[in-house]
Amino acid sequence: MRILSGIQTSGSLHLGNYLGSIKNWVELQHNYETFLFLADLHSITVSQDPVKLRRSTLEVAAAYIASGIDPDRSIIFNQSSVSAHAELSWILGCLTSMGWMNRMTQFKDKAGKDKEKASLGLYSYPVLMAADILVYKADIVPVGDDQKQHLELTRNIAEDFNRHTGTNYFKLPEPYIAGTATRVMSLRDGKSKMSKSDPSDNSRINLLDDQDTIIKKVRKATSDSIAAIYFDKENRPEVSNLLNIFASLSEQKIETIVANYESKGFSEFKSDLAELISHKISPISDKMHDLLRNEDYLLEIMQKGTIKANEVANKTYREVKELMGFVCL
Question: How far is CA 193 from the centre of its chain?
Fold first, then answer.
């Protein structure tokens, strides 16, 4: 069984990336053939500074390894180094209806009111995401709650390709959603997802933050005026988000945490949460800094991963071309 996932290489990775994705991959790599890519092609759907994009790509690779991804067990590579991703995306895009694309909600969210200035890449990137998955014939795709629609589109595209070619060539990938904090929200606004693009650095815990910074950010995190600590996602989104984070990092049930702080105040709760996050994230931050000082090592890992990824992806792409009727020389 094979899994495939990746993270965009734009901006610094944060606690949401770790709890929502990387932490789960660390466990999954022991039971699945694991392909983890650095999504640099997806990153340029919005303008990127070339120097920062390169640095961010290396930071994501460092984050994978520092968090526990084993390069000897998992295949780590940058997306743009495997040309079959983009090439298969073109073929699949020619089979994808505009009706399907117009129903994709993330383009509307990301483009905002000024859709006329949004790039074609931002509109069509779900097809590239489908190519990412299908080019490795992934069985399982770890996704967050907000990515379910993309995986459903991937399944639709795979079915359409199979109908077009009269085959069952592509299997239909299944979603894998695990963990308490599948969607970590902003520390400033419990109704908004924790994001690398949020202008407020206090809205997130970056994986490169030091211990003092982590503690200050958690203590400043938005809560509310109600003294009691309890979970209510609709009416108390900020408090519920902090409880989710606490539960995921401590591997306790939310009910247990609520019971533990029944007679305690937010000050003690936040203090303990800050210490917990620091205890979990600071070692990752320290190792990331060490890895980033050894760029040659990171590039070597990515190069080895690229060779392995190309072996699989190029075979799939050639078979797809043959099924489509292309002359393959």
Answer: 12
Options 3.90.1260.10, 1.10.10.10, 3.10.20.90, 1.10.240.10; CATH of 201-290: 1.10.240.10
User: 110, 304, 308, 321: which is the annotated catalytic residue?
Assistant: 110
**Exposure string for 169-182, b = 16+ CB within 10 A, e = fewer:** ebeebebbeebbbb
Going from N- to C-terminal start, the domains of the chain cover 2-181+295-324, 201-290
> Which of 181, 304, 182, 162 is CA-nearest to residue 243?
181
In the block, which residue shows the tokens 């509307």?
Answer: 108
What pLDDT is stored for residue 181 in this prediction? 57
Residues, the chain = 329
| CATH superfamily of domain region 2-181+295-324 | HUPs (3.40.50.620)
pTM over 0.85: yes
Q: Is residue 207 within 8 Å of 288, Cβ to Cβ?
A: yes
264 tagged catalytic: no
* Identified catalytic residue from 23, 137, 148, 196: 196
Residue 38 belongs to what H/E stretch? strand 33-39
Query: Residue 110 catalytic?
Result: yes
Cα–Cα nearest to 142, from 1, 278, 6: 6
Q: Give the separation between CA 213 and CA 278, rounded to whole angstroms.
A: 9
Q: Which carries the bigger pLDDT value, residue 109 or residue 75?
A: 75
pLDDT in tens, 29-54: 999 999 999 999 999 998 899 999 99
Q: Out of 52, 171, 193, 287, pick the active-site residue.
A: 193
First to last CA, the chain: 31
Distance from C-alpha of 96 to C-alpha of 175, rounded to nearest angstrom: 21
Our answer to whether residue 171 is catalytic in this structure is no
Nearest to 238 by CA among 230, 130, 42: 230
CA angle, corner 301, sides to 79 and 3, nearest 5?
A: 55
